[in-house]
Amino acid sequence: MQTQQLVPLALPRGQKLFCELCRGPATLRCGSCAVTYYCDVEHQSADWVSIHEKICQLLIPLRTTLPFYNSEEERKHGREQKLRREKFLAELTQAVAQNFLLEGKHEDAIPAALHSLKFSISVHSSNAVELVPAYLILAEAGLGLGHLTQAEEYLSQAQWIILKNSHCSNAIQSDFHRNLGLLHAAKGNFEDSLYHLANDIYFSSCAFGTNHMAVSGGYFHMANVFFRQNRMDIADSLYTEVTNIWHHHFSHFISLQYHTLMTPAELDMLAEEEETTEEVLDAKQRAEAKQMLSAILEIREQSPRPQLPQIAKILHTLAMFHYLILDVPKAHELVMKLLQVMKKLPKYEPSESLHQLVKLLKSKPIYAK
Fold this sequence. Notes:
- By secondary structure, the protein is mainly alpha-helical.
- It is 69% helix and 2% strand.
- The chain is built from 15 helices and 3 strands.
- The protein has a 3-stranded antiparallel β-sheet with strand order 1-2-3.
- A hairpin with a 6-residue loop joins strand 2 and strand 3 (37-38).
- Helix 13 (308-324) runs antiparallel to helix 14.
- The model is unreliable at 269-278 (pLDDT under 50).
């Protein structure tokens, strides 16, 4: 990271420069690209760690004076090239911000999300529905940091755009209502939280289907609200629903891999197993599955009256999850724990899915990952 101090007297008269992050008066700039300005070294460092290091040189052609074009055709080509660059940067910065959220690095996500918002506005206009994902990332980062007022402001911006765009997708509305539900839960407004989380479940069901993994998040966060209200019977049924959704999904892929393993004609396809695994869960789904299922297992095990069938179900689900993300040692550990629980349940018959998982684990070294 290179820093150059600005000399106010050297700037053109009337020109004002603003910080990339806070829009305050700039006192320095990036010494590498020389087109990005900051109010202090702290904001420059935050931007560099988040996104600027990746896009530093890409900003130069966007923030320097356009060359002189000799024809309308050249001008059109120049505008199209600039638009393509801005679209690429809007997508890149959004992806980086989302990855920081998945890693729990909420503070690092903010500069990248702000860049995504700016590029999206430049490409689509300030009221376009394409801006909503950036606002939701900023809101989620604010919630993660406990900055509820800031999160509420970003959600208000997102809501205004959604209301003005009747063609807004069900998936975006689901994400919006989930964040709004989490905001109200953080503020202690449980009834409002449940209302928005119910909307999250509705819109995600419309977008993906009632038993899709995307729906499980709404059930999980709603269960957490009931748990905080000590309404344990409702919370328990919702945690069970979350477990069932993931269990069904993982069982399907365990079955596919098992039949691939047991079919002699297709043994040579085992080398492509990792490619198949990539289709099971993307990065966001992996993070959500691990968060939700681990939390449910902890709640089940710490319950004053542990229900062993429910513990067995969540252990089985987590074991399949870790196998599918190629964490074989953890999957083996969970299966061993599951078998110990099952010994206390004489009437609990191992499912076909569990038999298949055990066979798959035996086919791989325990140290594989």
